[in-house]
Design a protein that fits this description.
Blueprint: E1 3-10, H1 17-30, E2 33-39, H2 52-62, E3 69-75, H3 86-96, E4 103-109, H4 112-120, E5 124-127, H5 136-141
Parallel strand pairs: 1-2, 1-4, 2-3, 4-5
């Protein structure tokens, strides 16, 4: 019998309550969750000093006590820019996951177009609209105003000196 494993991917620049909610719902549905932190050189996180390595480290810190969540980093620097390159990107992402032959990835996304692309490629994807009226863009633009929405492990990046 096949066992589903949740996959939640994003740039997480920064991770916020909406992401945490999506990850929690994926965990409740599937048990095990892979959080894939993705990005490329000079992406939106990198432009504010929150490069892929830092985001990956903060995400690992966020889930260090959660045995049901595994965090991976996906460097997209050499891949075609979105929306091109879906097949290469998906191949690389799946290569990061330590799935047994009995495990099937199920994607949890907050972008409807991502769910549609994954469905077209034969994957199960659950679309969940954004919650909390927050986005990483709003946080990057107004970190002090949206401080309470930032995931705890990412708060140190937005310390008092950057607000």
């Amino acid at each position: 019998m096949k066992q589903t494993v949740a996959v939640v991917f994003g740039t997480f620049a920064p991770m916020h309550k909406g992401h945490l909610d999506l990850i929690e719902r994926a965990k409740l549905a599937c048990g095990q969750v892979y959080v894939v932190v993705s990005g490329y050189d000079k992406d939106r996180g990198d432009r504010i000093g929150l490069d892929l390595t830092k985001r990956f480290q903060f995400a690992q810190e966020q889930f260090k006590e959660d045995r049901l969540v595994s965090v991976c980093a996906l460097d997209e620097t050499d891949l075609p820019a979105y929306p091109d390159g879906w097949d290469l990107w998906l191949e690389r992402l799946l290569g990061l996951l330590d799935l047994s032959e009995n495990q099937v990835p199920v994607f949890y996304v907050s972008e409807e177009e991502y769910a549609q692309e994954l469905h077209r490629r034969g994957y199960q994807a659950h679309y969940s609209p954004r919650k909390f009226g927050i986005s990483a863009t709003l946080i990057r633009e107004h970190p002090q105003q949206y401080h309470d929405y930032i995931a705890p492990a990412f708060l140190s990046f937005f310390g008092k000196e950057s607000m």
